[in-house]
Write a structure and sequence with these properties.
single chain; alpha+beta; 1 helix; elongated
Length: 66
Amino acid sequence: MKGDYCTREGAERLKEQIEAYWADRGHDVRVNLIQGGFLASMRSARTDVRSNLINGVPTRSTENFA
């Protein structure tokens, strides 16, 4: 499914899109993919996308995040 961003492949596409979008605007945005556990409601495992964006906006800090 093309719009499914919870799968590993979808999360990787989303990561690339976010990083490319902000790189084109001169920002160094860091995005990590975190493998989540199985969710009964989804009937599958999920991949979480986490970044150093605050409310969708880049920060000046380039420190790592949890």
